[in-house]
Specification:
By secondary structure, the protein is of the alpha/beta class. The chain contains ten helices and 15 strands. The protein starts with 8 loop residues before the first strand and ends with a helix.
Length: 324
């Protein structure tokens, strides 16, 4: 794998080094501890990936990755975790001082969309699929209200409200950011969630997947559809890809991991099916599942939601088959 441009480092006085405009919260104090430069990969001409995992002690393993494109007239950013927003912004500022003009979401979860209000305050236009925006507006206000009931939630979210996309699209939106940087935002349908969008740069052969790909981590399918998720993975596998910025986990060279995740769903589905045929409840299936070759993957505590989703999908399939 290509080595990151920046290695993890605590940056003292970063607001002074980068200029007061680089850190919107510098005047009121950094909310989330020290600003650090996150691992940054240059994946093409003006195309970068920021790896968010394992970089701060209070951010969980597998924290959302960010992709960005430096265009002729500004910067396009895809996915951003609010927990270390200032660190992500500082990392972007190591390669460009151009204004951030566009911020897009791959899905509605706060580790993807949490920075929306910050980027909007900086003058960026927010972009998302129509399905993502509808899902976000259905889900985010209640989640924000819950967050504001806790001290940690108030520290993170006070002054940062709901910020849904300003521009939506049904299937695909193309941003022409400069020579060789044609940037396609593509709604893929329901996989991880109902609003899943990816960013593909065909000329650079780079793909930002958001949470349609969890690299060496158990994927979460609570709000999704694992069968359709596999169809989405197959669709992306047909594209020319040199680099992938997954939603979580290491940045990947090549596209073989798309098949790795699809195989995971096949394997876990058959293991769930075998336990169901023994008459086990969903709780018993989850407690007795053999992770086998996936036992060393991260986020194993999140796997229960995916196993429950697979269990209920199989129930529906069996019920439908029994009606014929």
């Amino acid at each position: 794998m290509r080595k990151p441009i920046w290695r993890l480092a605590v940056v003292l006085g970063l607001a002074i080094i980068l200029g007061a405009g680089a850190l919107p919260n510098a005047a009121s104090g950094q909310r989330n501890g020290p600003v650090v430069l996150l691992p940054l990969y240059q994946l093409g001409d003006g195309v970068y990936g920021i790896q968010g995992s394992d970089v701060l002690p209070d951010v969980p393993v597998g924290s959302m990755n960010t992709g960005f494109v430096v265009g002729d007239d500004g910067v396009f950013v895809f996915a951003c975790n609010l927990q270390n927003f200032e660190s992500r912004l500082a990392t972007i500022r190591t390669v460009t001082d151009k204004p951030i003009r566009w911020m897009a979401n791959g899905h509605m979860a706060s580790d993807d969309s949490g920075c929306n209000s910050e980027f909007r305050a900086m003058g960026a236009t927010l972009i998302g699929s129509r399905a993502m925006r509808d899902h976000y507006l259905e889900w985010m206000p209640a989640r924000l209200a819950l967050e504001l009931r806790t001290p940690a939630g108030r520290a993170l979210w006070e002054g940062r409200g709901v910020a849904a996309p300003d521009i939506t699209f049904e299937d695909e939106l193309v941003l022409h950011l400069g020579e060789g940087r044609e940037t396609h935002l593509i709604w893929m349908g329901t996989g991880h969630t109902v609003g899943d969008t990816v960013v593909y740069l065909p000329q650079q052969r780079v793909l930002f997947t958001a949470d349609l790909l969890f690299a060496y981590l158990h994927p979460t399918a609570r709000d999704g559809d694992t069968r359709n998720w596999q169809r989405i993975l197959a669709r992306m596998s047909a594209w020319d890809i040199d680099w992938i910025v997954p939603g979580h986990g290491p940045i990947l060279e090549g596209k073989s991991y798309l098949q790795t995740q699809s195989t995971y769903f096949d394997v876990m589905r058959e293991r769930v099916r075998a336990l169901m045929q023994q008459g086990l409840s969903v709780e018993d299936v989850i407690s007795r599942i053999d992770f086998g070759e996936y036992r060393d993957w991260g986020r194993q505590n999140e796997a229960a939601e995916t196993l429950e989703k697979i269990y209920h999908e199989l129930q529906e399939e069996m019920g439908a088959a029994g009606q014929h």
